[in-house]
Amino acid sequence: MGAIELRNIVKVFSDKRRGRDLLTLDNINLDIEANDFVCLLGPSGCGKSTLLNIIAGFEQATSGRTLVDGKQVERPGSDRGVVFQQPTLMPWLTAIDNIAFHLKLKGVARAERYDRAMEFIDLVGLRGFEHHHPSEMSGGMNQRVGIARALLMNPSVILMDEPFAALDAQTKLEMQEELVAIWQKRRCTIVFVTHSVDEALVLGNKIVVMTKRPGRIREAVNFDLPRPRDITSPEFNDAKRHILSLIREESTRLAQAS
Amino acid sequence: MTSVTDVSPARPALRLTRAVQGLERLVVPALLIAGWEAFARSGMLPPALLPAPSAVLHALGDWVFGFDETTQTYSGHWPRDALASALRVFGGFALASALGILAGVAIGWSRLFEKTLEPTLQMLRPIPPVSWIPLAIIWFGIADKPAIFLVFLGAFFPVLMNSIHGVKTVDHNLVRAGAMMGANGRQMLTDIVLPAALPSIFAGLRIAVGSAWMLTVTAEMVAVKSGLGYVLWDSYYFLRYDIVLAAMISIGLLGYLSDLSLKAIMARTLRWQQATTVQGRAG
Questions:
Q1: Starting from the edge strand earliest in sequence, which strands make up the sheet with A71-72, in order?
Q2: Which CATH code for domain B74-267?
Q3: SS3 helix, strand, coil % of chain B, rounded to 5?
Q4: In sequence order, which residues have a C-beta less than 8 Å from that of residue B82 and are 6 or more positions away?
Q5: Are B201 and B212 in contact (CB under 8 A)?
Q6: What is the C-alpha to C-alpha distance for residues B180 and B93, in angstroms, rounded to an integer?
Q7: Domains of chain A (ranges plus CATH)?
Q8: CB 3.0–4.6 Å: which of A137, A167, B18, B30 could bond A141 by disulfide?
Q9: Where are the transmembrane segments (chain B) (predicted)?
Q10: Rounded Cα distance, A212 and A45, in Å
């Protein structure tokens, strides 16, 4: 479960104040298999977040079809867990209440909610902090709560929009390792948006390189380096060189065009 | 140059500094009251026109406890007068809060209510509540009702405006997160939008409780025959400025206490907000 098909996705934002339309996504076609870990890699403003929001159901494509497990995406839903760039937790709820929020909405009794949420508190290493409010925890801890919250819904797809961008380098490394471990253990499809080549190569087994404005797919690179990945290995560097050359070609093309 | 002893003074010294700091606040009021007392006793103005603080305190004491009937018919009647005013404040404030939050959330959340309801309310808002007094008296007579009506008018709009603002400025990513976790329309409102808007709603309630006291006293001066505002105005006719001042102090104190209790409720409800302070994170 968790296969995603994107067919001829076009997204145009109409800028009413300036009276012009902005083509953000230009004919995106992408197949993501179940249990893939896909990284959408591209510079700021290439529409990678927009694409993620379309899969999440937060935004509608201007044209094209988005299918998750063969079903057309029309609105957000708990089959697609989203981890936002900022933790986006309910500030009035404690960590455990944030993680169990989905169960509360479903009317599950408190004792059972807490019981099930504790498993995810342990999974993301937050035991001892379950009754802390978001304002009492660090950014990294809050992002863990955000990931646990998405995992608890047992979604077939997890969509992550640069979730580690605001973290310091050390916390980021830890979180990346933990995310890979969680993905290996739970087997779900992850679509991970990032602008960092290294991050994409550490995490993904498929790296989708996007071009800037309008967003197009430059190349989808399969990358099956065994894990844990050694970021100093020749294979890693070969892949990095290839992706960097794609990005460089792209910036030369843009420079010549302007 | 700071020495170590400057940074962490010994405990007794610290306590002394705190005590002195506490006294600092009292210096200005103490000087003002002493100056007033001295001026009133100097005889430059007739005592009836400028009662000394001691005389005001005396009047207030008799009004509250009724020990020597210096306040004549009011002697010992303070609890009844204060209760009459407090009930009007509470009645109008409760009504205004309930309707203000309801209408504010509806307008903030739904385009339909925003288009249909808001223009009318925004046209009524600039009319000062006191200008409704003649109509209030015609409609409700001289009793509790016109006072509660005026209090309602004064308290409703701050609650309404802050509720609208609170709902409209809810982080739209929280709404998205709610939708992602499967919230339906009603849950979105009760479990996400309303709690997120609470800090703003409480700000409105605190402004409203101030307006409520202001309008209770105004209404009692004009349209009601009981309460602290009535005593104040009645004593003015009898040139009992000591009672006028005692009434002013009473209103000030009760208004302060209402705000304090509201603040306590707010602190309990919004406990999640308190963790972050200017000094950093608590705990």
A1: A20-32, A4-15, A63-68, A71-72
A2: 1.10.3720.10
A3: 80, 0, 20
A4: B228, B250, B254
A5: no
A6: 38
A7: 31-44+88-257 (3.40.50.300)
A8: A137
A9: 89-112, 124-142, 148-167, 188-215, 235-257
A10: 7
Cβ contact B272–A133 (<8 Å): yes
Region for residue A191 given its phi and psi (left: phi exceeds 0; alpha: psi -120 to 50; beta: otherwise): beta
Please state the rounded mean pLDDT for residues B49-69: 87
| Contacts with B179 from chain A: Cβ below 8 Å | 57-58, 75-76
**Cβ–Cβ below 8 Å for B272 and A82:** no
User: How far is C-alpha B128 from the chain's CA centre?
Assistant: 18
Q: What value does the CA radius of gyration of chain B take, rounded to a whole number of Å? A: 25
**Does B198 contact A106 at a Cβ distance shorter than 8 Å?**
no
A90 contact residues in B (CB cutoff 8 A): 174, 177, 192, 195-196
ipTM: 0.87
Spatial distance between the Cα atoms of A143 and A147, rounded to a whole number of angstroms:
6
A154 touches chain B (CB under 8 A): no
Cα–Cα dist B59/B72, whole Å: 10
Average pLDDT over residues B211-225: 90
Cα(B231)–Cα(B243) distance, integer angstroms: 8
Give the angle subtended at the CA of A180 by the CAs of A178 and A181, to the nearest 5°.
60
Q: Please, what's the largest Cα pairwise distance for chain A?
A: 63
Give B 154-213 residues with CB within 8 A of chain A: 171, 173-174, 176-184, 187, 191-192, 195-196, 198
At B282, the pLDDT band (50, 70, 90 cuts) reads: very low
Which of A88-92, A216-220, B74-78 has the highest mean predicted lDDT (pLDDT)? A88-92
| Cross-chain Cβ contact A75/B179 below 8 Å | yes
User: Is residue A113 less than 8 Å (CB to CB) from chain B?
Assistant: no
Q: pLDDT of B222-259, one tens digit each?
A: 888 889 999 999 999 888 888 999 999 999 999 999 99
SS3 letters for B107-124? HHHCHHHHHHCHHHHHHH
- State how far Cα A134 lies from the chain centre: 21
Place of tokens 């309910």: A90
Tell me whether residues B180 and A80 touch, CB distance under 8 A: yes
Other CB atoms within 10 Å distance of the CB of residue B10 = 9
Cross-strand pairs, A190: A37, A158
- Give the C-alpha separation, B77 to B254, whole Å: 16
What angle, 0 to 180 degrees and rounded to 10, lies between the N-to-C axes of helices B228-237 and B78-109? 130
Structure tokens at B87: 């009930």
Query: Do the chains contact at A92 and B198, CB–CB below 8 Å?
Result: yes
Residue A210 phi/psi, 5-degree rounding, is -105, 155
Q: CA A151, CA A147: separation in Å to the nearest integer?
A: 6
Note whether B95 contacts A: Cβ–Cβ < 8 A.
Answer: no
